[in-house]
Amino acid sequence: MEQQIHMEYAATKKEKPNAADLQFGRVFTDHMFIMDYTEGKGWYDPRIIPYQPLSLDPAAIVFHYGQTVFEGLKAYVTKEGEARLFRPEKNMERLNRSNDRMCIPRLDETFALSAIKKLVGVDKDWIPTAPGTSLYIRPFVISTEPYLGVAPSKQYQFIVILSPVGAYYKEGINPVKIAVENEFVRAVKGGTGEAKTAGNYASSLKAQELVADKGYAQVLWLDGLEKKYIEEVGSMNVFFKIDGEVVTPALNGSILKGVTRNSVIKLLKHWGIPVTERRISMEEIHQAHLAGKLEEAFGAGTAAVISPIGELAWNENQMIVNDGVTGKIAKQLYDTLTGIQYGTEEDIFDWIVEVK
Ligand SMILES: *Cc1c(COP(=O)(O)O)cnc(C)c1O
Predict the structure, then answer these.
(1) What separation in Å is there between the alpha carbon of 164 and the centre of ligand 1?
(2) Mutate-to-test residue for ligand 1 from 90, 138, 200, 235, highest number of ligand atoms within 8 A of CB
(3) Sign (positive/negative) of CA torsion 273, 327, 314, 252?
(4) What is the DSSP string of 276-300?
(5) Nearest C-alpha to atom 15 of ligand 1 is from which residue?
(6) Is 196 a pocket residue for ligand 1 (Cβ < 6 Å)?
(7) pLDDT reported for residue 342
(8) By the 8 A CB rule, do 286 and 294 touch?
(9) Domain 6-165 is in which class?
């Protein structure tokens, strides 16, 4: 039976930021969604309430052992003022896969999506309208049982918050410098790399901090066992164009299954551009570069959509990719994906879900 979402409107509304001041994830809307779980009772009491702090027991499991998962997607508004989501059912599917990995009870995906749509509808006037801006949606689950034993929590909260975000590229899509990470790893097979769970991001901070000091935007992560094979770039999936063919690391258990990654593969296939998911070594990329066959490299994820790589540093090798400018495929993917999201390109794959 579909549960009724209880609605409590905010008595006062916050002032909205100017489009020009929008950053990422700093400002939150007037409302939030929250729902509880207790073992034996299941998920209950879904409600939209004024955005507010949580009150949790200091012994809540999430604070100590990180039993938690999250998602990230965006709401866009068209020129006509219509609010829409991009493939949100994929995020709900992944939320449950992350839940399974972290021993968190599954959510009803259809209900969770209807809650997100309702919340976005309530705060619809927070979706910024300037080009490239959007409303970032952050669903997450936390373990709230007060218990210091290492065991799955018997209580949880599923929460959704919204944040208006600025255009990722303020001066047009721009290539970044990336350092290949030889010491630290993001994930290993058998670990939690495939789940969107807090610990993966906490453990990535050190490597990111060290390369940022040397002027790199992100690290390129290698596999955790041999440190030979490419996994991801920062918190994005990664693609290379070598001698006319686009390649991306095959999902191997330690790579996050990106919605953008899947969309890129579908578009490339639709355009008749060869695309292969397989194991790719850093040595292969280096050899392709030496042979003049490394034509493009780019990351793919919800935040940036497509992030071209202009330079790759690996040991003593500085590899400049496509003269350090955005490649043709990266640009075409960026324009098409954002066009579909903002409603200026035809939604040929039925990816768009309207928020009524
Ligand atoms: C979220 C995420 C991605 C990209 O996933 P999208 O669904 O495309 O946003 C890729 N890698 C990591 C590690 C991520 O956390």
Answers:
(1) 19
(2) 235
(3) negative
(4) EEE--BHHHHHHHHHTT-EEEEEEE
(5) 235
(6) yes
(7) 96
(8) no
(9) alpha beta
Q: What is the pLDDT of residue 2?
A: 67
Looking at the CA of residue 263, tell me the nearest atom of ligand 1.
8
237 lines ligand 1 (CB under 6 A): yes
Which segments of the chain have a pLDDT < 50? none
Nearest of 252, 261, 253, 199 to residue 233 by alpha carbon: 261
Residue 210 half-sphere exposure, CB side, CA atoms within 13 Å? 12
Q: Does the beta carbon of 246 sit less than 6 angstroms from any atom of ligand 1?
A: no
73 lines ligand 1 (CB under 6 A): no
From 3.40.50.2000, 2.40.50.140, 3.20.10.10, 1.20.1250.20, which CATH number describes the 176-342 domain?
3.20.10.10
pLDDT value at residue 171: 73
| pLDDT score of 199 | 97
The verdict on the CB of residue 259 being under 6 Å from ligand 1 is yes
For the chain, the distance separating the N- and C-terminal CA atoms, rounded to the nearest angstrom, is 22
- CB 218 near ligand 1, within 6 Å: no
Please write the tens of the pLDDT for every residue from 43-100: 999 999 999 999 999 999 999 999 999 999 999 999 999 999 999 999 999 999 999 9
**Domain ranges (residues) in the chain:** 6-165, 176-342
